[in-house]
Amino acid sequence: QPVEATDDAFWDQFWADTVTSVQDVFALVPAAEIRAVREESPSNLATLCYKAVEKLVQAAESGCPSQTEKQIVLNCTRLLTRILPYIFEDADWRGFFWSTVPGAGRAGADEGDDESGRPLAESLLLAIADLLFCPEFTVQSHRKGSLDTAEDIHSIDSCEYIWEAGVGFAHSPPLNYVHDLNRTELLKLLLTCFSEAMYLAPSSESNVLNPWVQFFCSTDNRHALPLFTSLLNVVCAYDPVGYGIPYNHLLFSDYREQLVEHAGQVLIVMLEHEGGTAAGSPTLDGTTTTAAMDDQDPVGPDNLFVNYLSRIHREEDFQFILKGVAHLLTNPLVQTYLPNSTKKIQFHQELLVLFWKLCDFNKKFLFFVLKSSDVLDILVPILFYLNDAQADQSRVGLMHIGVFILLLLSGERNFGVRLNKPYSVRVPMDIPVFTGTHADLLIVIFHKIITSGHQRLQPLFDCLLTIVVNVSPYLKGLSIVSANKLLHLLEAFSTSWFLFSASQNHHLVFFLLEVFNNIIQYQFDGNSNLVYAIIRKRNVFHQLANLHTDPSSIQRALQRKKTFPEPISRTNSQEGVSMKGSRPAAHAEPGTLKISLITTPGIDKLTEKSQVSEDGTMISVQPTDPSQSPLDSSRAAGASDTESNAGTGDDEVFYDKPERRRLSSTSCVSQWTPTSDWVLSWKCKLPLQTIMRLLQVLVPQVEKICIDKGLTDESEILKFLQHGTLVGLLPVPHPILIRKYQANSGTAVWFRTYMWGVIYLR
């Protein structure tokens, strides 16, 4: 039966009751009952929502001085957290919170009061914001003495009540677990409000904003700045280890950890920017915004959280954020002698999204990260996660975000330079033992992902190799292990059956040749291991140069493919002994939930080319530039008819349909057939000149040493190569091309679906 809104005795029983935990609410209010009320007596559901919001609004007004009022707030918060998803899942109900409820102005309010005309959603969000800075409920009171009246919640300056020291706030309030619990409950409700996005199909329109987020992050929310600072500081200041006492986390429950997790999730959801497309795209109001606002820009994004994030500029703030994020990302890697003696955090994926948004929205932060070798404290955990997650199909999103962050970093010269730092941290990883630099670690792990990962990782191969190309001009002294890995990849990718079995496969060969050319031209001295590996595998280069292009050879190669469907194995890549204490990458546990992710854009959409000039500055290269690398000019010719806009000479045809690039026997041979003309169109552009010249000069000399000294010992040859020089013998060095990540609507939508998938599963 419909119940009148004025029947307080009936409605009060929902929140005035004894203490209920959030678990109780979920148990007492089963899904089937909420749906039944929604279908059979919608007016009761509407009244319940409206009354619960009204209670929160009243509490925010009064500052909930009494224990009873505090309890009512928690009960209403839990009830709304429980009910909202059932409002969102029904298309007919979705607009309910955005409608104004007739006659729902607060009792006794005069008609001219703007509150009465507010949509329910806005009233709810403003009440949550007020309650997050409510003295004695979610923050420490600054009042001395115990007066019965609550502080006037509207007169307090919430910037003095920031939850944790850090950015823009020096004072660390004493830990209060009750406040932490209350904040967590309110943040859960806030996250539930924002989660409407999960019930809508992902839109490729980057300007379709989440109305809940949009309102909460606007100037209507007077607590935006202190809340932004509180969430950021709580996350970055968190230390999960806990006073250094082993097993401490098993004895005490850590209320702060729950708060930190929810703070991180709310923060990444609110950092949603309408300029999710490339810089300078028109936003909703027709003005243009760039993805990262500089201090010179007086307006900045409408979303205040993005605005504040983009304006952080003090070195000590950057240091605090970077140290905090790096410390937390490293936490799951920390091995102790006592198993399970330290707490392992579970929110590393949210941290990676936060780090991504920091770098993307605040270029000064990105440059700060790359200024010192501190960037390696972010790199090593990311490589650890990539290596650990590669066999597990349910963690394919984690693989993508790790690779995206490295792609973003690799667009800056400093990243390549930092990789030369020797790698001495011994994080147990299931990779061959090597002595070398962080660049060696990166190459060894990328090789492993490509050769032993699963099908769903294949769209990432281009990204992985683009990262290696971007850093290659700066790499000094690769180890013999990583040099062999690079040559093994070239060997695998340049077999004729692989080159002919999909329209885009030859691009991988172009990337690897570009890596070798960059190192030979710019870092020949000190890279004798790589030069020696190239000499030993010289037949691979000769086979590429003499690739048969006649129709019968193409057919024979494809027949061979049918008999040997497994593309790339690790059998002939001389795997060494793995590191001590490491476990192989595990597959997903049976029954693991997998989130669906939309397809990521091809590498040409993800990046734009820049040429490095003499003084190290970068100049953007237009796609029609004649100095394009051979890879790019081969693109139009190399794309299949179905996905090509070949006549345009545009840079759009790399590969947009990852499913086209199946390496296994399920390859799309049926839809696409290689022709002699097609093979010739890119074969003539293979950049082999530099390598062929190197082989021409060095091979006879190395052979002579072997014959003269009867040598089978590699160290003599390496010694000779170390002192050799090719000055004046190689072709003129080519300009260095860097493919820098560029923001685009495709990745913006991908990040949104990935982020909500993570939050939903957690």
TrEMBL record:
Domain of life, source organism: Eukaryota
Region (Disordered) location: 562-591, 610-656
Signal peptide: none
Biased composition (Polar residues): 613-632
The protein's name: HID1 protein
Source organism (scientific name): Polyodon spathula
